[in-house]
Specification:
The chain is α/β, with parallel strands linked by helices and 800 residues long. It contains 28 helices and 15 strands.
């Protein structure tokens, strides 16, 4: 083979029936398969589909290899997608160059990959718009506006002040002198703007969506994105007016205004109409989902035709779609996995592949000032975000640092912005490479910093005692009861009825029971949780929800039956299952709650027979036990016998007291129940029979004091009994617990016990529900034949 033959491009295969027109050239999509005449081994890649498949395979192999190592140090997947692009870029494999002339001499070999990548970025941006918390975007206070305006304007003014600095040093071979200020202006503009979809994605990844910091960041990004959009449209208009023609500039501006008006007055009302037309609990018709997706794609094509960023149309349509069920959740359920796991990584890898590190190093002298300008804008923007947070918004220093760091985050839309700038020749190849390397470092370092600084437990630190034991005399007992399913309502109401009792003439000053009922709904299709109070202002559609209506009716009836001693307020929280515990803690903190009551997650039939365990509820309870800002009670409710369901029937409540702060809290709760004439309260103290040096054991002394106070309070009551039982070893404990359970309808026990108390040898190894503790697990066991409910109590933890 001669040198000229070796350098000749691979011969294009003959046209097949499956062909597509690109400009004036036809090229093949798929090969003839086993009937193909293989002139060279690479002839198969002269077809668009096999070439696309090869490119996608190489991209995902590179992503998997990169993320295999990076995930061990907590680096997000987005960085692995970018690293895959660098691996396949000019510095190593150079996949784009290899594919460039495979289809024909006239058709770029990467046209199919470009189409897939662009579709992926459009769809991902659309989903981020759909999932954005509309309340955080539309209900913006003074703090986000202050931070956003300061961040944008100070960065823009500071950066543009250096735009013309050292222009005489620009090498004409690197870039014409007249284009250098434009390149610097694009760098400053990109740095000054904080993009809403990017921050939405970051907040979601960091699980900050239900925090106050997350809401501030989203609101600030919304303001910054809006101001940045106006700024970029103005810059684009001036540039087009000056360098193209006034007619094109005016046309593009009018076209963008028309698109915004169509989305506001046509797309958004139609989307709301779809939501209103969909029956409760029914899925949205598929045709509506496909029409919505096509609308987003058409809007992106429209903005691209009129010289705007192609993702802008998809973002605007996404923001017009009501988040949450039924439409938002349906869009996420149907499209998110495909787009997030397939199309989005391809988009990121392709844009990164266009960078050339070797060229950037070769042109370092020419781009050194651009690197300085990039560093300057980073420092200025961080400072311009931090100072307003600290001084004007009066946020703590740690939170101010977090917000300032989040405002500097760069992501996928920024890459899209750089890609458009490269195509329009506003960036040189070397500057483009510097910018994507900056995004790579930014996306890898900033989330790690935020994770290190952000601790959701900090706000729950127990500086103030919020439990029942330390309630002042005549104080209100504030209880937050959580409901995951309609099945949880009867158990919660039954327990609250035992705590409620009519006020007598001699205790008119006694505090009331303030109940907050929280209905938790697993979130789908909405990035950000939503807490909705149920009052006269609640939306009609929300009140028509059968689950919510059932809860409200049950608690309204409970309040009417106990109107003298009880107040009730109801809420619904839409939240992700791994963030529900934070929503519960936030509400408990806001209401100064003394105890949170949650269902155990174990479901029993009406006959008291075990049915199933809800893993999600158990995981939420585990997190609550670790971070709750007050005491917490986990209720395993089996229901009462038919004879106990009458309003005047006596309910036998037993308290197993072993020792420790959790047992003391359980005893304090039982003390409230003892005021109810329906309750027959029995306290059973388990003793080991060993001699203890009581003078040196502080917990034992406190236990005795609490028990003596309880016995003194109910010394003359007919519905109170106190007994002591000596038990030695795990088997004896299990046997005694089962005997006591058979005599009661409800057992109240502490979760943990002091080491001095009893020997639980053999029981801890067989525990099935660790969140209930040893005794609670015995009482909630599937094998326990007695139909007894159990409330496991943990006193407020003192977090450090």
């Amino acid at each position: 083979m001669t040198d000229s033959q070796a350098l000749a491009p691979t011969p294009s295969p003959p046209h097949s029936k499956a062909e597509i027109c690109y400009g004036a050239t036809f090229y093949n999509i798929s090969s003839y398969g086993i009937m193909e005449k293989y002139e060279t081994p690479t002839v198969i890649f002269g077809y668009a589909l096999p070439l696309l498949e090869l490119q996608i395979i190489l991209i995902f192999v590179s992503i998997v290899l990169s993320h295999m190592f990076l995930r061990r140090i907590g680096i997000p997947q987005f960085v692995s997608n970018m690293l895959a692009g660098f691996i396949l870029g000019p510095q190593l494999i150079d996949l784009l160059e290899y594919s460039s002339d495979r289809l024909s001499l006239d058709v770029p070999g990467n046209v199919a990959l470009e189409g897939v990548a662009r579709l992926g970025l459009v769809m991902f941006t659309f989903l981020m718009g759909v999932k954005t918390n509309k309340r955080a975007v539309y209900k913006i206070g003074k703090r986000p506006i202050t931070i956003a305006v300061s961040s944008l304007l100070v960065t823009m003014i500071s950066g543009l002040a250096f735009r013309n600095f050292r222009l005489d040093k620009v090498d004409p071979l690197y870039m014409p002198l007249r284009l250098a200020p434009t390149e610097r202006s694009v760098i400053v503009s990109a740095q000054a703007v904080t993009l809403l979809p990017v921050i939405t994605h970051l907040i979601y990844e960091l699980k900050m969506s239900n925090s106050e910091l997350g809401r501030i960041a989203i609101s600030t990004a919304a303001v910054s994105d809006f101001l940045g959009l106006i700024t970029l449209v103005c810059i684009s208009y001036v540039g087009t007016y000056r360098y193209a023609s006034p007619r094109i500039a005016n046309r593009d501006l009018v076209a963008l205004i028309i698109l915004v008006l169509v989305i506001i007055f046509i797309v958004k009302p139609m989307a709301q109409r779809i939501v209103d037309m969909t029956p409760e609990g029914k899925p949205v018709r598929k045709v509506y989902l496909y029409v919505t997706i096509l609308t987003a794609i058409f809007a992106s094509i429209y903005t691209s035709v009129f010289n705007q960023m192609y993702v802008l149309g998809a973002l605007l349509v996404g923001l017009a779609i009501p988040d949450g069920p039924p439409l938002g959740s349906a869009l996420e359920a149907r499209f998110e996995s495909l787009i997030t796991n397939i199309f989005f990584p391809i988009s990121i890898a392709l844009m990164t592949m266009k960078g050339d590190i070797l060229r950037a190093l070769y042109s370092f002298d020419d781009i050194s000032f651009n690197i300085f300008l990039l560093g300057l804008t980073v420092v200025v923007k961080w400072t311009a975000s931090f100072v307003p947070c600290l001084i004007f918004c009066e946020l703590p220093t740690r939170e101010s640092v977090i917000i300032a760091t989040i405002m500097n985050y760069k992501g996928f839309v920024d890459l899209c912005f750089y890609d458009v700038a490269l195509k329009r020749r506003n960036f040189s190849k070397a500057t483009y490479t510097v910018m994507i390397v900056y995004v790579l470092l930014n996306a890898g370092i900033l989330p790690t910093i935020v994770k290190a600084l952000y601790d959701p437990k900090r706000k729950y630190i127990g500086y103030v005692k919020r439990d029942i034991m330390h309630l002042k005399t005549n104080s209100d007992l504030k209880i937050l009861t959580c409901l995951h399913k309609p099945d949880n309502i009867s158990g919660a109401i039954s327990l609250l009825q035992l705590l409620s009792s009519p006020l007598k003439n001699d205790d008119k000053d006694r505090g009331v029971i303030a109940v907050t009922a929280l209905h938790l709904v697993k979130l789908a299709g909405r990035t950000f949780p939503m807490l909705i109070p149920h009052d006269k202002r609640s939306k009609a559609r929300l009140l028509q929800n059968s689950y919510i209506q059932t809860m409200m009716l049950a608690f309204t009836e409970f309040q009417q039956d106990n109107w003298e001693s009880t107040t009730v307020s109801s809420y619904t929280a839409y939240s992700h299952e791994d963030l529900m515990d934070q929503d519960i803690c936030n509400l408990a903190l806001d209401h100064l709650t003394s105890m949170i009551i949650v269902p155990s997650g174990r479901k029993w039939s009406p006959d008291g027979v075990y049915e199933s365990d809800d893993i999600m509820i158990r995981q939420v309870n585990d997190s609550l036990l670790d971070r709750a800002p007050c005491s917490i009670g986990v209720l395993n409710y089996r229901g009462y016998n038919k004879s106990k369901k009458r309003k005047n029937s006596t309910i036998n409540v037993g308290v197993i007291f072993i020792g420790g702060k959790d047992d003391r809290e359980a005893l304090s709760l039982a003390k409230w129940m003892g005021q109810n004439s329906r309750v027959c309260l029995t306290v059973i103290r388990f003793l080991s029979g060993k001699e203890l040096d009581k003078s040196k054991n502080w917990d034992y002394l406190v236990d005795d004091e609490v028990l003596n106070d309880l016995k003194a309070t109910y010394s003359l009551a007919n519905n109170f009994n106190y007994t002591e039982k000596i038990v030695n070893g795990g088997p004896a404990v299990a046997t005694t617990v089962r005997l006591v359970a058979g005599e009661n309808d409800l057992m109240i026990v502490g979760r943990d016990h002091e080491d001095y108390s009893l020997d639980f040898t053999g029981l801890a190894q067989w525990i099935e529900l660790p969140e209930l503790g040893v005794i609670g697990d015995l009482l909630a066991s599937k094998d326990l034949k007695t139909r007894v409910s159990v409330l496991v109590v943990q006193q407020q933890q003192q977090h450090e």
